[in-house]
Fold this sequence. Notes:
Blueprint: H1 3-11, H2 24-35, H3 42-63, E1 67-69, H4 74-78, E2 91-99, H5 103-111, H6 115-118, E3 125-130, H7 134-138, E4 144-154, E5 160-174, E6 177-186, E7 191-192, E8 197-211, E9 214-227, E10 230-231, H8 238-258
Antiparallel strand pairs: 1-2, 2-9, 3-4, 4-5, 5-6, 5-7, 6-8, 8-9, 9-10
Amino acid sequence: MRPASLILALLLSSGCGRPPDAPEELEELCGYLFAHFDDQARRSLRAGTENLAVWLEAHLEETLEGYAVDDLTLEAVAKLDHRERSVDNIEGAAVGYESRHFVDEMVGPLVVDEQEEVFPESYDSHERTFETDPECFLERECDYVRTTNRVEASYALGLRVTTHAVTEYRWVRTQDGWALLHRSWLREPAEVNFDWMQVEAQYYVGASLPREDGAIRLGAAWLDVRLNHSPVPAATALELVINSMIEDGESLDAYLDAL
Length: 259
């Protein structure tokens, strides 16, 4: 995920129409995986991950161009930390794609490699601090790793955005092999150098799911971005959010191709 890039998509999105609403099953699965990401009982997360894999195998072609998703509950975000949160203005999008690379190839680039190199067009700077042991996670001796991240990015019109986020990764053993899940959220509203733009919140959940010939990946992002203190209309925003996530997948595969 590229948090600042998704924020920029909302800023530049006046000409796009709203993507189709996600099927109920996909919308529920995205919200479920975000809400249950840190469950101690592995069975619930495994069940959600396997259900997502089954759904994507049957509907992959439909997801490549993305869907609008809105099923993120207050209960799911309220327990993240002590910050008071709301989902009243949240709008979201989800996109799937297939990769020629395997999940085990992706974990290093996503978790420990310099993100400026993996996604070279995305960041002015990306500072990551590990709160748990990344080597343990890479070797699958533990199934969870947590980081905090400070990201700076700049864009056209002189826009500069700084975000402070928590990012978590988790291994989930499924009937098809090891899946890699990814969850992220802003610890506080983003810092934006224009006072007419507010970035109140952003949430993300991603899944990299094993296949015999590579992997299927799905990303879902929910955002609360306001211009002139008004919610950004969903119909003008979500298509570019989807395009941003599609570009992420292409950048990751290009990085892996070059290794």
